[in-house]
Amino acid sequence: FALGKLRCCATLAELARSKKTGGGGESPTRRYDVVFAVHALHATAPGVAAGEASLASFLRSIRSLLKPHGFATIVAPYSDSHEARFHAMYRETFLASGSPFRCARNAVESRAALLFGDEDKNAPKSLTVAEHVVSALAARGVAFHKVDRAFSVTVPFPFDRKEEKNTAVCLLESYLHGCAGNDSARLETMLQHPNVGAYLNSCRSRDGKTFRFPMKTAHITIAGGGVS
Fold first, then answer.
1. CB neighbour list of residue 102: distance below 8 Å, 6 or more residues apart
2. Between 130-139 and 55-65, two packed helices, what is the crossing angle to 10 degrees?
3. Phi, psi of 185 (to 5 degrees)
4. Considering the entire predicted model, what is its pTM?
5. DSSP 8-state assignment for residue 65
6. For residues 54 and 45, is the Cβ–Cβ distance under 8 A?
7. Three-class SS of residue 23?
8. 157 with 51: CB under 8 angstroms?
9. 3-class secondary-structure state, position 104
């Protein structure tokens, strides 16, 4: 298959729109040569349970959008990758019911939920990781090709953390919030927590200038018509 022959490519946004045009079985109004989802399965429920937010529904949407000669690429972290490990650690430490941090924020969150809705209430408790995707495809008898990649994400960090407007401080905090899918805990709170702080400091360089987070991802390719 020559990349030069590609005519159109779908993103995860199209997967959501496909539900309105037949993602559950009917043909959508448009099909694509390529459908890709790179670190984009965080909002899907792990496993193969039914439901619009499930991994099974996601895989059906891929099928409905692909041309017969097209292919889909899914990139997802493994359960022992930093992204998945930190997501679980953060949510257990700061968001679990009964945790000191959660209890301290209950009053504020309750008032905010009345005004804006509780966005975290329906958030997944664990990430949909590569193992989930592989299991779901295998359970459906879908042929796929998988390539594993290992790398590190390096985030700069300054010596003086008292500078609240320092962009490097904001960058590290924003990156960790993105991994956790939540921005309740500030960077200082994370670094000062016994367990979370110990893990983060284990990823810190000796000179203190950077954090290197180990990543391991699966790159999964599925041929058109391969998912049912």
1. 94, 95, 96
2. 70
3. -90, 125
4. 0.73
5. H
6. yes
7. coil
8. no
9. helix
Distance (Å, whole) CA 36 – CA 44: 15
d(CA 182, CA 94) in angstroms, rounded, equals 10
CB distance 179 to 214 below 8 Å: no
| pLDDT tens-digit readout, 169-180 | 678 999 999 999
Q: 141 burial class (0-12, 13-18, 19+ CB within 10 angstroms)?
A: exposed
What is the distance between the alpha carbons of residues 204 and 20, in angstroms, rounded to a whole number? Answer: 46
φ, ψ at 27 (rounded to 5°): -80, 135
Could you give the angle at which helices 194-202 and 82-90 cross, rounded to 10 degrees?
160
Where do we find the tokens 């979370």? 196
Higher pLDDT: 114 or 127? It is 127
Q: Please list the residues that pair with 37 across neighbouring strands.
A: 74
Q: Which amino acid makes up residue 206?
A: R
Q: Report phi then psi at 15, rounded to 5.
A: -60, -40
Per DSSP (E only), the strands in the chain are 9-10, 32-38, 66-77, 145-156, 210-223
How many Å from the N-terminal Cα to the C-terminal Cα in the chain?
A: 23
219 forms bridges with which residues in the sheet? 75, 147
Residue range 48-75: mean pLDDT, rounded: 79
Give the integer Cα–Cα distance in Å for 53 and 124.
Answer: 10
The kind and range of the H/E element at 16 are helix 12-18
Please give the Cα distance from 132 to 135 (Å, whole number).
5
What mean pLDDT comes out for the span 41-64? 72
What count of Cα atoms within 13 Å lies in the side-chain half-sphere of residue 192?
7
